[in-house]
Design a protein that fits this description.
There is one protein chain. The chain is an all-alpha fold. It contains seven helices and no strands. The model has no long low-confidence stretch (mean pLDDT about 85).
Length: about 170
């Protein structure tokens, strides 16, 4: 496959010109896909880098950081490999997460939920919608995004045979 054909196909799939010197993430990821495909097809770094206006070291950087691309970019990479029947390895796509089972409400939380429901029943619809949009949804996202802190393993310390003179070392 020629580099011009590859650039043309990527431009069609992405909907913009990948040779344009823009530092936006979508342009950068498109160039990563281009560099990875061109390198796998056997072209030199200087040759395919020059076609999109990047140096050979920048092309090498794009190849090495190829795994950082988004799910949609991986789909485009796999589409080109399949459409042109290239003898290349497809990108691994992440598996869909299984739907989590709904957690049972703990007995101690039922009383709290009743109290909250009594307060919310007194509010009008507009206040409820504002509360959901400004407080509840952001807090829910925060809860989902935070990970529990990992406690470092406890290391058994050295035993002091005699007392240390420096109080800062104790």
């Amino acid at each position: 496959m020629k580099l011009e054909e590859l650039i043309k196909e990527l431009n069609n799939l992405y909907g913009f010109d990948i040779t344009k010197r823009v530092r936006k993430r979508q342009y950068s990821y498109a160039r990563k896909v281009y560099c990875k495909l061109a390198k796998e097809l056997g072209h030199t770094l200087q040759m395919f880098g020059g076609k999109v206006g990047i140096s050979h070291d920048c092309a090498l950087y794009h190849i090495r950081t190829f795994e950082a691309i988004t799910h949609n970019d991986k789909i485009i990479f796999n589409t080109i490999v399949k459409n042109f029947r290239l003898n290349l390895k497809l990108c691994k796509m992440p598996r869909k997460k299984r739907e989590e089972k709904q957690a049972q409400i703990k007995p101690q939380n039922k009383e709290l939920i009743k109290e909250i429901t009594q307060v919310l029943n007194k509010w009008d619809t507009e206040s409820l919608m504002r509360f959901i949009g400004t407080r509840l949804e952001p807090y829910d996202k925060l809860i989902k995004a935070t990970k529990p802190q990992i406690q470092p393993p406890r290391v058994k310390g050295a035993k002091l045979i005699r007392q240390v003179k420096n109080p800062m070392l104790c």
